[in-house]
Design brief:
Radius of gyration: 24 Å
Shape: globular
Protein name: Glutamate decarboxylase
Strand order of the largest sheet: 3-9-8-7-6-4-5
CATH architecture of the largest domain: 3-Layer(aba) Sandwich
Distance between the termini: 63 Å
Number of helices: 11
Cofactor: pyridoxal 5'-phosphate
Catalytic activity: L-glutamate + H(+) = 4-aminobutanoate + CO2
CATH topology of the largest domain: Aspartate Aminotransferase, domain 2
CATH superfamily of the largest domain: Type I PLP-dependent aspartate aminotransferase-like (Major domain)
Family: Belongs to the group II decarboxylase family.
Number of domains: 3
Structural class: alpha/beta
Strand content: 5-15%
Organism: Actinomadura viridis
Order of helices and strands: EEHHHEHEHEHEHEHEEEEHEEHEEH
Largest sheet: 7 strands, mixed
CATH class of the largest domain: Alpha Beta
Amino acid sequence: MPLMPPRHDGGDGRDLEANPIFSREPVRVPRYALPARETAPDVAYQMIHDELMLDGNARLNLATFVTTWAEPRARALMAECAAKNMIDKDEYPQTAELEERCVRMLARLWHAERPHEVMGCSTTGSSEAAMLAGLALKRRWQHRRRAEGAPEGRPNLVMGINVQVCWEKFADYFEVEPRYVPMEGDRYHLSPETAVERCDENTIGVVAVLGSTFDGSYEPVAGIAAALDDLRARTGLDVPVHVDGASGAMIAPFLDPDLEWDFRLPRVASINTSGHKYGLVMPGVGWALWRDAGALPDDLVFHVNYLGGDMPTFALNFSRPGAQVVAQYYNFLRLGFEGYRRVQRTCRDVATRLAGEIAGLGPFELITDGGEAPVFAFRVREEAAGFGVFDVSGALRERGWLVPAYTFPENRTDLEVLRIVVRNGFSHDLADLLLDDLRRILPRLERQPGPRRGARDAGVFAHGAETRHPRRPGRG
């Protein structure tokens, strides 16, 4: 059969062509329509494999918080459990049991006074967990307002403008007014004073972030809780706190044990974290925990039979594999407290050393140093007039490094930064290679008459550091 030239299909692009050296028929398949016939498995694999070579190298992706490396035994367990549907707890009771064990382990890790009374579940990630936590806050507020005979039509949620975009989605999807606290000067996240200023009788809760996606910093959860305690003493307003610990809730317990941010604070009603971030699991799994049944209204919970008993479930998603939950339990069992402490300590050590080395190069100024979450942001000094952060990001991408550059939100849109996320598997050796490449590109960038790249050239991989769009008064 003679080979035909590539065919264009009127706008959808060329068909996919199979290399005749390693392929069998068909030699051409459509890109955007189902093929008319079957494709040999080796041919289908090779076509897809070749296209995926154009993706970035996940290990060199310093933008994402998501785990990009796992032990072979963890991968094997995930493969064995890929076909198990997490929602079918009566059909896969032992997978459900491992999920329950993980919840109890996290409850103890986060200092729940009565771990056996904590309500919790796995999710597809922190975004779903945040949605669930927000829904619980809203429903609790609605119940209280109804009991008081008060209107319940204008709920609001107070949070820093640095929150992850999932909170913006929650507010939009579930009709809650987001009350964002803008950045001011050198304050890049929520403070106790700014949180309390925006609370009123319609506030369903305050979101405190442990590990801001913009710069890796912890918000002062204890200070926010204390300010809300004072607000209640003065006004009677009782506003709960949800801790978005997508990153920090799996770091602080191991590296900052004296930091009070969790269920030790009575005002903290719920906590979420990402198992697929510093929980060290491949994506996607998250966790949502509530202090007790009172923090999670029962009318949001569904009950299923499980090992002859009752297991409450609360989730937005239905069918999903049990693989990630099993991998989470494997990591808890495999590493234990000391193993997690060593992994997170290494990440922080790499982050703080790398931050210090970058600061020592001259053109850069640190915003944070990686001393809380192992994440740090830095900017180009004003005197380095020949280039900006977007030039640096673009030049590093030539070597395969994915380092996001972005602009901070209101009221610091003047601040353009680069951010580096250090995860398990990003070693001191890799940090040295990154430094070598930074040193290599700087002379070329410094010879430029001015910045050549801007925000429009930056791509869309800020991974949580997208600019919020506060709603104008009267818009919802």
